[in-house]
Write a structure and sequence with these properties.
Chain lengths: ~260, ~350
């Protein structure tokens, strides 16, 4: 925490320059750049196949970029491994929910806490006092997070037995458990009905305010995008079509054309 | 709430093993145990340990391994080797057996680690094939291994006993190729077997319900998500795999000390044995340690108990296998079971309400 405060205020939380990757001959992402201020709710939109999820995979180290640099809070994380990037402070959710489905709701969050509450494997096997102490702290922290998402009543459920909307929330809770600086949400409203989407919008807002989180999200639901995102970047065929304030971007003729055709 | 449940479940598992031990001991003391059953007791413990340890790889880590007998073989031979080596230096058989258990587990664990590094990059069927091959390689290598020692130290050979070039007067052959190791003291008893089984359960159950166990299970459930929350996938895969291998090695040492002659034959350590252990794990339920023990005990004892029905014994064994599989895994059977359980619960609550 102290380290974060030391840095001057004007460094953006995420700064990406000239990011590119090709698969075979296809330039999936080409010359992508973005700058996200601390505490901003930023949207990444674009038609299907525009390369949005590829950008997420580049940011989280699933793919290594061909060119470009990624700076998180001033630190260069380009080309690092997924787990290193997570430890540096980026957490994400997935388009197709990826929970630990045979584990309990509580344990899902506790896996997220893995790197922040430590004891050795031997301590765990021998059940030394440190085990009980750290497990207790872990349980308390995990329950706190679940309470935020109104999931504390279901902590003992198997993750796969949760209804769809709650699974999405659990994924966000698990991501937050890793104590990130930047949260990436990949189509959080996919498959939700209008009521669930409205509730999700509130949740995202709440996460931003409550955890002072910087959030980058991919979304197709324009109601959600225009409702909560402060800034937008529009991707089309791997390239940036436009970026800026939400209201400007959404009224841009090129954006409308990209979505609806000529 | 769930933590309490897990604790109760684990206590039931330990209790079950202890009760089994007590019943067998009482039957033995009162002379109600046939010699056939007596001979089965140590193998029962061994199979139970093997099943629980393989369940760590298959059920908790979620990787299919068909080389478990290979790790057991490594443990058996390194353990028996040590016991025979130290015959002069350490007169107490118990101490030697104890040291052998440690060495057997260590050797199997180290090999688990070494083999895991390349092998765990593979997934599913490929991993199964490579581990299968590994088990066979180990067995065949030990089959042609000759080791002896004399005043000049140890001698190794892959050919025959004469090429060891041992000193005529002080030379002793320890491992004699296909004839294996002879003269290991038969120190393994049922009680020691049960103690080792309890130790295995203690290690595995405590591991599962700890930070490490959660990391391992998260890899099983979703590797990509596990990486995204900062779990070191390679580290935890290797850890689970080598702990599983070390426990199999320990079971091997137990086995080696229940035989006067230990040979690396297909019968003892072939892939059939690996598959047999896998059958225990699958029938007992993936991730269900108690189930593994029950399946191992039932399916080891059954063919022996049925010896009287000579012609039909394998037929009955096969039918039991099929029925157990259906009972455990068929969706209809699971539905039926839950209906029955609900009815029982319903009656209980009705009784309570009536009272």
């Amino acid at each position: 925490m102290a380290e974060r405060e030391k840095k001057p205020e004007n460094i953006p939380m995420l700064e990406v320059r000239n990011l590119s990757i090709s698969f075979g001959g296809l330039k999936a992402v080409d010359g992508f750049h973005i700058s996200i201020e601390k505490g901003c709710l930023y949207g990444l939109i674009g038609p299907n196949g525009a390369g949005k999820t590829t950008v997420f995979n580049l940011l989280t180290g699933v793919y290594k970029p061909n060119t470009g640099t990624i700076l998180l809070d001033g630190a260069n994380i380009t080309g690092k491994k997924t787990i290193e990037i997570n430890q540096a402070g980026i957490a994400r959710t997935f388009q197709n929910i990826r929970l630990f489905k045979d584990m309990s709701v509580l344990d899902n969050v506790k896996v997220g806490l893995h790197n922040h509450y430590r004891y050795s494997t031997l301590t765990g096997i021998l059940r030394l006092p440190a085990y009980f102490k750290v497990e207790k702290e872990m349980n308390e922290r995990a329950m706190e997070l679940l309470k935020v998402f109104d999931l504390d009543g279901e902590s003992g459920y198997k993750a796969s037995n949760l209804p769809y909307g709650k699974q999405r929330k659990l994924e966000i809770a698990r991501a937050l458990a890793t104590d990130p600086k930047l949260l990436l949400l990949d189509e959080p409203a996919a498959g939700m009905n209008p009521n669930e989407t409205a509730e999700l919008m509130e949740t995202i807002h709440f996460v931003r305010d409550h955890f002072q989180m910087t959030i980058l999200l991919i979304e197709h639901d324009m109601k959600l995008v225009s409702g909560i995102c402060e800034k937008l970047t529009v991707l089309n065929f791997g390239q940036i079509l436009t970026q800026g304030e939400t209201s400007q971007v959404l009224n841009d003729r090129r954006v409308i054309t990209a979505y609806l055709g000529e | 709430m769930t933590k309490k449940k897990i604790r109760i479940q684990n206590a039931v598992t330990y209790g079950m093993v202890l009760i089994f031990w007590a019943v067998v001991e009482i039957m033995d003391r009162t002379g109600n145990l046939s010699s056939l059953l007596k001979g089965l007791l140590v193998p029962l413990c061994m199979y139970a340990i093997l099943a629980v340890s393989l369940n760590l790889t298959v059920g908790i880590l979620g990787e299919l391994s068909l080389g478990h007998a290979g790790f057991m073989c490594l443990g058996a031979f390194s353990g028996a080797f040590l016991t025979n080596c130290l015959e002069g230096a350490v007169p107490s058989v118990g101490v030697r057996f104890f040291l052998a258990l440690l060495l057997g587990a260590l050797v199997a664990g180290v090999f688990g680690l070494l083999i895991g590094i390349p092998v765990l990059r593979l997934k599913g069927d490929y991993l199964a094939i490579v581990t299968l091959a590994f088990g066979e390689i180990i067995k065949n290598l030990i089959n042609v291994l000759y080791v002896g020692y004399d005043a000049n130290g140890f001698h190794f050979s892959m050919k025959d006993t004469t090429s060891l070039g041992l000193d005529k007067e002080t030379g002793v052959i320890l491992i004699k190729g296909a004839q294996g190791i002879t003269g290991t003291p038969r120190a393994a008893t049922f009680t020691i077997g049960i103690l080792l089984l309890l130790l295995t359960l203690f290690i595995v159950l405590n591991l599962i319900n700890s930070r490490t166990g959660r990391a391992v299970m998260s890899i099983r459930d979703n590797r990509i998500a596990a990486e995204s929350v900062g779990i070191n996938v390679t580290k935890y895969k290797l850890m689970a795999f080598s702990i599983s291998a070390a426990l199999a090695g320990m079971a091997g040492v137990l086995y080696a000390h229940s035989l006067s002659t230990l040979q690396a034959s297909s019968n003892n350590f072939g892939y059939n044995k690996s598959i047999l252990i896998l059958v225990f794990v699958v029938l007992g339920g993936l991730g269900n340690m108690r189930g593994s023990i029950i399946a191992a005990v039932l399916l080891t004892a059954l063919p022996e108990m049925l010896r009287g029905l000579n012609d039909y014994r394998m037929l009955i064994y096969a039918i039991v296998l099929i029925v157990m599989t259906i009972f455990n895994s068929s969706p209809k059977a699971i539905e039926l079971r839950s209906v029955v359980m609900d009815k029982i619960r319903h009656k209980k609550t009705e009784k309570k309400e009536a009272a």
